[in-house]
Amino acid sequence: MKLEEILSMGKEDLPDLDAFMEAWMEFLSGKPGDKAGRLLCEAVLLQKEGDELTDTALKTAASHPSCCLAVMEYFQERKDTDQQLLTGKKALGFIDKKYKILGDIALKMAEALGEVKESREETGAVERTLLGCRNEFPRQSSFHEALREFGMPDLRKKAAARR
């Protein structure tokens, strides 16, 4: 059962729902494990929007970095590539480099970059961020998969030259 299903069971709105959700997210932030992370991501996605969604995911990233990826996927589904790229860039600078999920976040950034590459001048900053990622977690293949999949041969060459 999902939190959204529980919240929609009654005929009327729950009193102090916002206060409950904040307390629930704070509680889950302190709990380790995948189940707590999944519940936290669900609560964040139900309660927040836009920049607030990104900021909340980053606040919880130390214990549950998967929330940042979930937020990026949320923005990707809604075709909000600006927020997807912003969330990814912030997450890459914030999440501990020991987490393998950074490769997945870089992949989501590359996907977003592939969507907007032709229509933006600011893609250079994102490309530099992705190049930096390659040096941060060299054993993860997601980076090279992203470059290959999204047709970024110039960036792939730059990444190879930096090694």
Question: Your description of this structure?
Answer:
The structure is a single chain. This protein is an all-alpha fold and 163 residues long. Helices cover 71% and strands 0% of the residues. The termini are far apart. The mean pLDDT is 75.
Q: What kind of assembly state do the chains in view correspond to?
A: single chain
Number of helices: 10
Largest sheet: none
Mean pLDDT: 75
Range of strand content: under 5%
How would you classify the helix and strand content by structural class?
Answer: mainly alpha
Low-pLDDT sequence parts: none
Q: What is the number of strand segments?
A: 0
The 3D shape can be described as globular
Topology order in helix (H) and strand (E) letters: HHHHHHHHHH
Helix amount, in percent?
Answer: over 70%
Distance linking N and C termini: 47 Å
* Radius of gyration from the alpha-carbon trace, in angstroms: 17 Å
In a nutshell, what does this entry contain?
The chain is an all-alpha fold and 163 residues long. It has helices spanning 3-7, 17-29, 34-47, 50-59, 66-77, 81-94, 101-116, 123-136, 142-149, 153-162.
Layout of secondary structure:
Blueprint: H1 3-7, H2 17-29, H3 34-47, H4 50-59, H5 66-77, H6 81-94, H7 101-116, H8 123-136, H9 142-149, H10 153-162
Features:
single chain; 163 residues; mainly alpha; 71% helix
